[in-house]
Amino acid sequence: MSSDFGSKVVIVNFKAYAEVDGPKAVGLAKACEEVASKTGARIIACPPMVELSAVAGAVDIPVLSQNIDPRKPGSATGWVTPSMVKACGCQGTLINHAEHKVPNETVGQAVAMAHELGLVTVVCANTVEDAKALAEYAPEYIAVEPPELIGGDISVTTADPSIVRDTVQAVKAVNPNVRVLCGAGVKTGKDVSAALSLGADGVLLASGVVKAQDPRAVLEDLVSGL
Ligand code: G3P
Predict the structure, then answer these.
(1) Domain limits of the chain?
(2) Atom of ligand 1 nearest to the CA of 185
(3) Global pTM?
(4) 9-223: what fold?
């Protein structure tokens, strides 16, 4: 297992929103960095793949890739290798996001290759059962996100608190070292604090920050819940 980012983390997935196209990705990452240094909170940026080098070169907070493909350097046109993600300056990667699902076997290969390079892995799961199966690969984090709540206005911690509690229990039964995050609809400090109360080590979120008129203000509120 690679050393992780600890508990009480807020991971901001920039996804592929137009709000972070081109240099705007660095702008949002700098906002994350400003709030992290002002508050001491662990905020992690997960920008669009094509902006990884630019963002990792511009900020000191950890940067994650949104995906890696378990391919070696060389004949892998169009794939994103763990090696190139590491070379961009990333400290880790999401794997198996609900919007980028891969077979469990591929998750296992990607986690193993990431760990060979010291990259931290955040594996996403749609359900408690998925999370339990994916915990066998010993990622540093499993992020449970019910797909139907992603991008919505009701936080998973309100709409389905039992999925968070049950995922923590199921994952810890497989491997107590794997930390659990939750996501989908998380937008406020109250949602973050509810996530921690349910046993999660932090949150993975996107639209609440990326689409906000004032991302700094939203981030400050979010980290107040840690
Ligand atoms: O990766 C985070 C994500 O899927 C949740 O999205 O917009 O509901 O915070 P959102």
Answers:
(1) 9-223
(2) 8
(3) 0.98
(4) TIM Barrel (3.20.20)
